[in-house]
Amino acid sequence: LNETDIFSRDIFASIMSLKEKGALNEASIKSLAEITEKSFSNNTAIANIVELSDIKKTSADTLEQRKVYLKKIDSLLTSYEERGLGKEFTVFAEYYENAETTSLATLMPISTTYENMSKELALIETPQPMLILHRDFINNTHKLSVAIKNISQIDTNGILGATGFSQYKEQSTEFTRIIRVYAELLAQHDIL
Questions:
Q1: Which of 185, 150, 192, 190 is CA-nearest to residue 170?
Q2: What does DSSP assign to residue 58?
Q3: At residue 64, does pLDDT exceed 90?
Q4: Cβ distance 18 to 172 under 8 Å?
Q5: E-strand spans in 6-78?
Q6: CA torsion 30→33→38→40, rounded to 10°?
Q7: Is the per-residue pLDDT at 169 higher than 70?
Q8: pLDDT tens digits for 90-143?
Q9: CA-CA 20 to 30 A from 171: which of 138, 161, 180, 190?
Q10: pTM to 2 decimal places
Q11: Using one digit for the tens of pLDDT, what is the confidence trace for 147-157?
């Protein structure tokens, strides 16, 4: 059973239980709806895959090491954009315009692209002042991968797909924040 099947079964069982007890009324239905809404909002969190202690650190924090690090990030972003990073927007547009479910299948390779990027980010040595940003970037690209994978299943598992959209909204906002910080750092270090 997928999440949608389990949800449907649980809702049906709750309604039948309330009906048998003679408690199926407007207030109980409203309460059930509120519980369901809270349940959905609590199920969107995706676990981090790395902590600060997992990040490979450079031997020292010098201007040159910061530049090397930032050039690696810039190169990695360029490389992954060429591999499909960000292409999910086109798929989302096709899906909404045409309700084209076959386009959702193209989300899986995009999800894999984000996951591969998170793994490659984890291999980069990072200067001390950039550790938190780097950790957040690794975790964020992983979470985007999971969210996109969940969205790809919306036609066969509506709840998981809807959860994926909620996850994606949150994680894409964080991705934008991280990219802005990197852009500022690249400019400050005369790399852009």
A1: 150
A2: P
A3: yes
A4: no
A5: none
A6: -170
A7: yes
A8: 898 888 888 766 778 889 999 999 999 999 999 999 999 999 999 999 999 999
A9: 190
A10: 0.81
A11: 999 999 888 88
Q: Does residue 35 sit in helix, strand or coil? A: helix
Point out the least confidently predicted range of 8-12, 85-89, 165-169, 184-188: 8-12
Tokens of 31: 């309460």
- Helix 63-83, helix 107-121: angle, nearest 10: 170
DSSP assignment of 84-153 equals: TTTTHHHHHHHHHHH--GGGGGGHHHHHHHHHHHHHHHTTS-B-GGGHHHHHHHHHHHHHHHHHHHHHTT
User: What whole-number distance in Å separates Cα of residue 5 and Cα of residue 34?
Assistant: 20
Q: How far apart are alpha carbons 138 and 68 in whole angstroms?
A: 18
Burial label, 135 (beta-carbon count in 10 A; 0-12, 13-18, 19+): buried
Contacts by residues 91-96 (CB-CB < 8 Å, ≥ 24 positions apart): 92/151
